[in-house]
C-alpha cells in the first residue's frame, strides 16, 4: 500500500477536501489516467464505472470536472459533463428515472453555475452545434430573455451557415414565446436567409399589427421572379392578398414614398399585368379609397373602371360594386337626415347633398346600357351592329344620334367591319332625309361612294340607295345620272370582279345588282331605246345572268321585236353552257314555235339545241322537236326523232322515252307497228324495266290475238323475273295460260319457272337481295302482329313452340280437280 502512495498522490486533485470521493476501487482508473494523460478513454471508462456503481452525482461530477480540465478540447467529455449537470436541474426525457425539475426562479445560483459551465465549454468548442443546442435549450427554461436572445445571436455568428437551421429551429419558438419586438426582429433576420418562409413572416406581421411591413414584404416577393410559394399560391393570389390587406387596414397602412407603398400605382401595374382580372382590381382600388374615407376619389376610380374595362364580365363586376357603394352611402345620408328631422334640426346643405347623390345614382343607372355598349365597342370598334345599337339607344335625341353616326363612320375601318357597313351610311343619309335635309343626305352618299368597302356588293348598295333617295324626291333625271356614274366603265373592261386587290370603285361597274336596278328604273321611267342600250351594255361586259336574258327577251317580245328577241337568246347561249343553256333553249324554242312559221329554220334551231346536249336534258328537247313535226311536219319524221331520242336520253329517262314513243307510234300507225320498238326496248333496257316492257309487249300481242307470240314474249321476259321477288309477273303469266293455254303450256310455264328459280338460286347477288328482302318482310310482319295484338296477348314468337308433323306440299303441284 505504501509503495503505491506516490502514484495515488499524483492522481489526486490538489484540493485535499475531495479525497473522500475516491475509493479503493477507483485506484485502477486513477492509475490508467496517469499512464495515458492525453487519452479520453480512461476518463470515459472511469465515468462509466461510477455510473454503473450508482455513485453520487457529486463523485460523477468530480470525475468529469477533472476530465474537462485535463482535456479542455474534448467534445465528448464536455458533452457528458454538461448533460450530467443539466440533468441535475431539469428532467431528461431519455431517463425516466430522472424526475428533477428545479424551478429556475428559486434555484438561480445552480442555474447560473451551469450557465457559466456552458460558457467555459464554448470558449474552445464554439463550432460545435450540439453544445450550442444544449445551452440554448437550457437557457429557454430560464427567465433570461435578453441573455438567451444574445446567446442565439452568438450561436449564429459562431456556427457556419450550413448549421444555422439547427439554431433557427430553436430560435423561432423562443421568439414566439418572447413575442413583441423580439419576435419581429428575429423573424426579420430569419427571412433574410430563408426567403421561402416569407409568407409565414407576413402572417406574423399581420398578427402583430405591423400592416405596413407586411405590405412591404408582399411587394418584395412579388418583385422577386424566383420566389415560389410553399402554399402553391400564384402571383395573382399573392397580389390580391396584399390588396385585401391594404383595403382592410387602409388607415393603418402607411402609404408614402418613404414606405415605398403606393396602392394606386400597385393596382394600376396589376391592371397591366393581370389583364383578365381588371374588374376585380378596379373594385379593390375603389374599396381602398372608401375605407380611407375618400368617397369622391373612390367614385372617380369607379368611373375610370367602367370606362376602361374590356369585357362585360369585368364591367358588371365594377358597375355592381359602384351601384352598391352609392346605395350604401345614400342609405347613410338618409339615416342622418331621418335623425335630424326627428330632432327638428334643419341642415339645408346636407339635404342638398343627399338630393345630388340620389340624382347621381339615377343618372348612373340610366347610363348602364350606354356603358355596356362602350365596353363592346372597346373590344371591337369595327362592330357595326353595336354602333347601330348605340344609335338606337339615343332614340329621338337628334344631336346625339348625329354625333354617334359621325363617330362610328370615322372610327370603323371599312376593311375590318364585322357587318354591313353600307347600311350605316345609308341609315345616316336617311336620318337627314327624314328631317328634310336632302342636301346633307346627298353629301353623305357622295362621301360613302368613295369609301373602300370590303366588297363590291356593299358599294353597289350605296349607289342603289342614293338613286332611290333621288327617286323618292321624284328627281328621276338625277337618279339616272347617279346610276350612269356608278356604271361608267371603259368600252372593253378587263377588270376581274373578284380581284380583292383592286378597290371596289374599280370593279363596281361589273356588279349585276347595280345593272339590274339601273335597267329596272330605266325600263319603268324611260324609252325602249334607252333600255336596250343598257341591256346591250350588260352583254358587252359579259355580266348578264339567265334572268337578264329572259327579261330582255320578254321585253322585246312584248314590244313585237321577235327577231331581236331571238338574237338575245342566241347571245345568252354564247355566254352560258349547260345546265343554264337548257332553260334558255327551252324558252327560246317555245317562243320560236310561237312566232316562226318557217319549218326549216325551226328544224335547224332544234338540231342546234340537241347537238351537244347532255343526256339528262335531252328528253324534253326531243319531245318538243317531235311535237313540232307532228303538228307542222311529217308524222314519220316525228317518229324518227323519237327513235333518235332513245339513244340520246340518259338511262334514267330511257324507259319513259320508250313509253312515250310507243304511245305515239300506236296512236299514229297502230299497235302492230310497235313490235320493233318493243324488241329494241327488251334489248337495251335494264332487267327490271325490260320485265315491265315485256309484260306490256305480251299484253299488246294478246290484244291482237297473237297468243303464241305473247307466250314466247312471256318466256323471253321470264329470265328477268325472280319468282320469289317478282310474283306479279308469274301470276300474270299463269292467268294468261289459264285463259288461253292448255295443260301442256301450263306445265311448260311451271318448268320455266323452276328453271328461272334455280338460276337465281346460284346467283350470289340475288341470294343476298332475297335474304335482305325476306328479313325486312319478317320484321315488318312481326311489328304488325305486335301492334295488332290485344292487351295481354303474348306473341307466338316469344312463346314456346310445339313442333308438329305437317304434310309435305309441292307449290308447283297442279290441282286436277
Automatic annotation (TrEMBL):
Pre-mRNA-splicing factor SYF1 central HAT repeats domain span: 199-412
Domain of life: Eukaryota
Stretch list, region Disordered: 778-817
Pre-mRNA-splicing factor Syf1-like N-terminal HAT-repeats domain segment(s): 26-196
Keyword terms, alphabetized: mRNA processing, mRNA splicing, Nucleus, Repeat, Spliceosome, Transferase
GO molecular function: transferase activity
Entry's localization field: Nucleus
GO biological process: generation of catalytic spliceosome for first transesterification step
One GO CC annotation: Prp19 complex
SUPFAM superfamilies for this protein: TPR-like
Domain Pre-mRNA-splicing factor Syf1/CRNKL1-like C-terminal HAT-repeats: 414-787
Transmembrane segments: none
Protein task: Involved in pre-mRNA splicing and cell cycle progression.
Subunit comment: Associated with the spliceosome.
Family, similarity comment: Belongs to the crooked-neck family.
Name listed for the protein in its UniProt record: Pre-mRNA-splicing factor SYF1
Organism: Viridothelium virens (Speckled blister lichen)
Source organism phylogeny: Eukaryota, Fungi, Dikarya, Ascomycota, Pezizomycotina
Amino acid at each position: 500500500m505504501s509503495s503505491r502512495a506516490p502514484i495515488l498522490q499524483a492522481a489526486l486533485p490538489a484540493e485535499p477536501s475531495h479525497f473522500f470521493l475516491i475509493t479503493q476501487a477507483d485506484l485502477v482508473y486513477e492509475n490508467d489516467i496517469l499512464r495515458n494523460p492525453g487519452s479520453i478513454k480512461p476518463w470515459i471508462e472511469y465515468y462509466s464505472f461510477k455510473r454503473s456503481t450508482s455513485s453520487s452525482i457529486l463523485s460523477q461530477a468530480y470525475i468529469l470536472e477533472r476530465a474537462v480540465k485535463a482535456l479542455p478540447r474534448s467534445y465528448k467529455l464536455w458533452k457528458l459533463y454538461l448533460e450530467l449537470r443539466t440533468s441535475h436541474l431539469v428532467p431528461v426525457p431519455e431517463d425516466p428515472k430522472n424526475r428533477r425539475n428545479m424551478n429556475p426562479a428559486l434555484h438561480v445560483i445552480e442555474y447560473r453555475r451551469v450557465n457559466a459551465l456552458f460558457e467555459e465549454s464554448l470558449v474552445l468548442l464554439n463550432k460545435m452545434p450540439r453544445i450550442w443546442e444544449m445551452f440554448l435549450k437550457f437557457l429557454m427554461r430560464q427567465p433570461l430573455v435578453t441573455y438567451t436572445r444574445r446567446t442565439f445571436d452568438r450561436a449564429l455568428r459562431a456556427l457556419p451557415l450550413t448549421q444555422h437551421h439547427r439554431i433557427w429551429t430553436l430560435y423561432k419558438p423562443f421568439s414566439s414565446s418572447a413575442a413583441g419586438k423580439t419576435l419581429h426582429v428575429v423573424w426579420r433576420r430569419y427571412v433574410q436567409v430563408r426567403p421561402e418562409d416569407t409568407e409565414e413572416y407576413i402572417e406574423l406581421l399581420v398578427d402583430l399589427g405591423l400592416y405596413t411591413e407586411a405590405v412591404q414584404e408582399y411587394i418584395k416577393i412579388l418583385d422577386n421572379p424566383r420566389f415560389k410559394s410553399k402554399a402553391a399560391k400564384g402571383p395573382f393570389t399573392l397580389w390580391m392578398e396584399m390588396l385585401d390587406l391594404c383595403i382592410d387596414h387602409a388607415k393603418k397602412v402607411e402609404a408614402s414614398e418613404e414606405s415605398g407603398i403606393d396602392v394606386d400605382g400597385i393596382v394600376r401595374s396589376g391592371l397591366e399585368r393581370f389583364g383578365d382580372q381588371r374588374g376585380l382590381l378596379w373594385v379593390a382600388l375603389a374599396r381602398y379609397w372608401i375605407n380611407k374615407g375618400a368617397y369622391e376619389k373612390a367614385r372617380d376610380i369607379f368611373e375610370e373602371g367602367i370606362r376602361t374595362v374590356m369585357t362585360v364580365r369585368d364591367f358588371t363586376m365594377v358597375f355592381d360594386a359602384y351601384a352598391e357603394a352609392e346605395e350604401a352611402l345614400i342609405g347613410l345620408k338618409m339615416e342622418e337626415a331621418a335623425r335630424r328631422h326627428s330632432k327638428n334640426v334643419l341642415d339645408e346643405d346636407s339635404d342638398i347633398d343627399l338630393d345630388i347623390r340620389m340624382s347621381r345614382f339615377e343618372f348612373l343607372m340610366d347610363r348602364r346600357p350606354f356603358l355596356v355598349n362602350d365596353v363592346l365597342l372597346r373590344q371591337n370598334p369595327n362592330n357595326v351592329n353595336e354602333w347601330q345599337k348605340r344609335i338606337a339607344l339615343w332614340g329621338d335625341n337628334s344631336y346625339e344620334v348625329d354625333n354617334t353616326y359621325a363617330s362610328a363612320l370615322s372610327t370603323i375601318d371599312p376593311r375590318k367591319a364585322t357587318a354591313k357597313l353600307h347600311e350605316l351610311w345609308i341609315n345616316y343619309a336617311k336620318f337627314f332625309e327624314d328631317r328634310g335635309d336632302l342636301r346633307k343626305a346627298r353629301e353623305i352618299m357622295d362621301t360613302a361612294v368613295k369609301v373602300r368597302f370590303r366588297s363590291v356588293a356593299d358599294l353597289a348598295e350605296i349607289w342603289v340607295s342614293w338613286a332611290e333617295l333621288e327617286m323618292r324626291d321624284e328627281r328621276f333625271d338625277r337618279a339616272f345620272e347617279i346610276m350612269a356614274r356608278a356604271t361608267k366603265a371603259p368600252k372593253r373592261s378587263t377588270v376581274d370582279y373578284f380581284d380583292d386587290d383592286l378597290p371596289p370603285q374599280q370593279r363596281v361597274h361589273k356588279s349585276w345588282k347595280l345593272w339590274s336596278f339601273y335597267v329596272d328604273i330605266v325600263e319603268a321611267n324611260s324609252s325602249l331605246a334607252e333600255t336596250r342600250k343598257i341591256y346591250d351594255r350588260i352583254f358587252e361586259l359579259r355580266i348578264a345572268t339567265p334572268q337578264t336574258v329572259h327579261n330582255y327577251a320578254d321585253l322585246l317580245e312584248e314590244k313585237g321585236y321577235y327577231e331581236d328577241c331571238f338574237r338575245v337568246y342566241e347571245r345568252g347561249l354564247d355566254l352560258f353552257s349547260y345546265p343554264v343553256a337548257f332553260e334558255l333553249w327551252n324558252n327560246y324554242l317555245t317562243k320560236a314555235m310561237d312566232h316562226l312559221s318557217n319549218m326549216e329554220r325551226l328544224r335547224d334551231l332544234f338540231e342546234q339545241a340537241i347537238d351537244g346536249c347532255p343526256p339528262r336534258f335531252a328528253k324534253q328537247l326531243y319531245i318538243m322537236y317531235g311535237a313540232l313535226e307532228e303538228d307542222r311536219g311529217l308524222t314519220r319524221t316525228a317518229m324518227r326523232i323519237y327513235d333518235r331520242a332513245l339513244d340520246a336520253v340518259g338511262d334514267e329517262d330511257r324507259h319513259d322515252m320508250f313509253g312515250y314513243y310507243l304511245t305515239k307510234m300506236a296512236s299514229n300507225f297502230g299497235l302492230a307497228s310497235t313490235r320493233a320498238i318493243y324488241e329494241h326496248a327488251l334489248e337495251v333496257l335494264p332487267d327490271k324495266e325490260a320485265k315491265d316492257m315485256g309484260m306490256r309487249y305480251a299484253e299488246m300481242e294478246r290484244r291482237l290475238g297473237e297468243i303464241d307470240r305473247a307466250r314466247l314474249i312471256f318466256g323471253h321476259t321470264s329470265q328477268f323475273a325472280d319468282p320469289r321477288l317478282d310474283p306479279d309477273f308469274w301470276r300474270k303469266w299463269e292467268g294468261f295460260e289459264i285463259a288461253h293455254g292448255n295443260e301442256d303450256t301450263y306445265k311448260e310455264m311451271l318448268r320455266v319457272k323452276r328453271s328461272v328459280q334455280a338460276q337465281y338460286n346460284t346467283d350470289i347477288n340475288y341470294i343476298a337481295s332475297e335474304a335482305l328482302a325476306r328479313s325486312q318482310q319478317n320484321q315488318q310482319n312481326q311489328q304488325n302482329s305486335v301492334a295488332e295484338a290485344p292487351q295481354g296477348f303474348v306473341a307466338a314468337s316469344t312463346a314456346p313452340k310445339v313442333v308438329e308433323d305437317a304434310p309435305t306440299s309441292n307449290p308447283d303441284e297442279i290441282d286436277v280437280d
